[in-house]
């Protein structure tokens, strides 16, 4: 769904994947439920849309919608940093994330469709 700010219309979604330190398979049970709640809190606080989340035993998938003012790297830093801090302050067991992550964009138009649209615009202003 297209959203808007005062000066922009946008539809930006990011698929984010990251793993706990040492790729330990401990994101299950109560830990999984707690993290899902924390991810939802972070997105609400930062004005992001948490479209989908899946906490697997050894990695996390998030599908987050964001206004264009937020860089993908900033969103990842928020989610990883704040989630670890909140989790570790609230609960006795610890969560630590690796420094690495994957982020990919997703939207309503494919790369090929955008390239075709741009190519079709070249002769339109004459």
TrEMBL record:
Residues 9-121 form the Transposase IS200-like domain. It comes from the Archaea. InterPro entries: Transposase_17, Transposase_17_sf. PANTHER family: TRANSPOSASE FOR INSERTION SEQUENCE ELEMENT IS200. This is IS200/IS605-like element ISHla16 family transposase. It comes from Halorubrum yunnanense. The gene is tnpA.
